[in-house]
Each structure stands twice: as C-alpha cells, then as structure tokens.
Predict the structure.
Amino acid sequence: MITHPLCPPWRRHLGNCHHFLIKVSLKSCGGRFSAKNFDLGLPHSLNDWLKVLRKRWTEPPLSSFPRSALGSRIFDALLNLSHEIPLFPTMEAMEKIYSAFRVPTMEHIITDIITIPQDTLEVFDIAADSTIPGLSKAAFIASMIMSHCAEWTPSSRIYSIHSLPCQPSGTLLCQLKIPSIFKDRAIAETDGRVPRWVSSVCPAGTLTDIHVDYHGSAQLMVNVACDKLWLLWPPTESNLLWWNSRHTRASNGDTVCDAIAQLEGLELLHAKGSQSFVLPPYHFHAVLTFEASAHLGVTLWGFPWWDTSRRGVEWEIKWASNHSKNGFSSEMAEGVLNAIQDESLKYWAEVINRFPEHELVDTVQSWLISMKANIQDALAAIHASVETGKRKRSGRTESSKKMRHND
Ligand SMILES: O=C(O)CCC(=O)C(=O)O
C-alpha cells in the first residue's frame, strides 16, 4: 500500500517464504498463468500474452485516458524484452484467509468508504499526478463509476485510494485471517487485536508509478475485485543503487520504462480472480489497472523476510545519511530515519518478543542495538549540518549587511 509521500518502500534466495510461494503457486495454478497457455501465436515473442493487455490499454475507453500514452510505452518496453518475463508467485486466497466464509467484495469496500468516520478521503489524482487531501466520498465514488465511460472528457476525474482502513460494517465483517504459515513465524500490524487490513481502490486507467512501500515489512495482499498488471522488482544491490536518486521522490512517468530497461529481476503478475500474494520488503512495484479494482493488504513482520528487511533498512539508513549526495533534503532524510526507528525497529523488537525461542533472536537483538546507534549518529550528523548551514547563512547575511553599511 502506498502512503505518500514517504511510501511507508529478490532474488529467490532471499526468503524461505518465497520458496513456499513458488511451490504453492505452481501446484495450485497448474501452470495456468504461464505465457505458453495464452495461445496467442507463440513463438512470436515470449511475452505475447501481454499484447491482449496492451490492446485493452490502448483502445477505447482507456486510450483517451490521461495515462494511456505512458502505459502504452510501458507495454512496448515489456514487449521489446528478449527474454520470457517470469510470473510473480501467487496463491489461491480461499479458506485459509476467508475465516468468516464471507469473501470480501466491492460492496464491502464501498461500505468502508461510506462508513469511515472522516467526511473526506485522501486520494491520488492520477491525471494531475498529485495527492488531494480531502475529497468528498461522493466525488470519489462518482469517479469510479465514470471510469467506465466511453471516453475521457474535460470534466472526467480519475482518483485512487491507497490506504483505506477496513471498517466494522464493511470489510472487517469478513474477518480475514492470516494463514498459519505466516502467523507462526511473523506478526501482523494490528488495530488493537485485529490485523490492520487496508485496501487500495483504483478506477480503470490508473497507472501507479514505481515505488516501494513502508520500511521493511512484507505485505500479504488479497484481490477483492482486480484486473491489473503488477510489475515487480527485487531490492538487489544494483536495483537499490539505481533507486538511490529516486527514493521517496514522485517519479516522472517514464521511470517505469527506465526500470524495465535497467533493473534486474522483473516479474509480472496479472491480478485477477481470488489470488493472494506476498510482497516482500522493499520490493519495487508499478501497477496498471484495466477495470475498477480493489485489493486488501496487511503488513507482516517476521523471520521469513528477515534478511531482505535487514538489508533494506541498512540501505535506507545509508541513503538518509547521504541525503545531500543523493539530492534529498535533510527533512526528508530525518523523516525516513524517524520512520525506521518508530516503525521497523519497533516491529522487529516485537517479533523477537513474540518468538523468543527462534534461532535468530540474538542476531536480531544485536542488529537492533547497532541500528538504533546508527540512526542516532545519522540524526546527529543531519542536525549538526543543518546548524552549520544556518550559521553560515546568518554569517553571510551579517557580512553583507556590514558591506552595505560600509558602502
Ligand atoms: O494498485 C495500485 O495501483 C497500486 C497498489 C500499490 O502500490 C500497493 O498496494 O502497494
């Protein structure tokens, strides 16, 4: 789930859980999502199944929508790749997640929107590429309905919501469960005692630029009603290096095309039907939506993602320490460091409290101590350089005043 502006951000060897997912996916899907089964004239291009999606994106009504041209460049970049793009592993959502045997639907999501205590919603305006902090619920629902119109008109709007908390009379009625394969080794973020599921709601034509979520958690995602294409990249060393100058920054649209050309480990997921999947920590993603869609997500912290989370947090602390070299303000760096301290380190401390017998407890414990110290050092260095900057500026002002006086 994206939380703007600090998107509270693989290699197969990084998480045991990933191995599990690959097995489950192959077993439960019976290879159904393989490009080879798309019967679209292979062997033209190994990724020919994408042509169907490209056609939908570039024909009415989406062809007149604001991000059509950019999406079409993304499809061209994908179709130009000379290798078969692997598919991101998914699982069938089913009874392991739907404990109340009530499968979440768009109706539950709309109830969440209507019953959320706030009068207005924070939405992302896709056409304007900016966040609107307080949009009326009616305007949002109208934009969802109108995204099915025949073509874009000057009064059309396209808004997406990226972190809508589930409400008691809406999605919470479904009492979604965290499957025991995760629950026995990880903790979920909670609101009191219930896992804090949030939804993303996007009209047709939404293109979400490449970004990373949060600061070290994995996310369990569940499709509610989805027809969207996810592009996903692991946080390998070279991918993170590429991301140094882009982290937390609103990307310009063609960043996704650059990512397709320059990042390693791209995987695709056409989200449809009752799938769920785990987005590991610091996994880069960009998403194109073909029909009004919604998915649910909950953040998970735990040992299956320890190594990826640890490496990502260490990278992010370095990124913040080098903020000016990376072209970012001290405020941005301070925000990231505080978020890591208040969020990531707190959850990792909770993980070792919950699973005191785990073999990694001592390792995580000493890592927490050194990360706390690193964050404190980085914050102190930022404060010192801000103070030095202020002194220099006021020194310059004083001397220019004096010069003017002497003139
Ligand atoms: O569905 C989308 O367009 C974006 C979703 C996303 O980035 C997320 O849930 O983290």
Residues 306-406 form one domain.
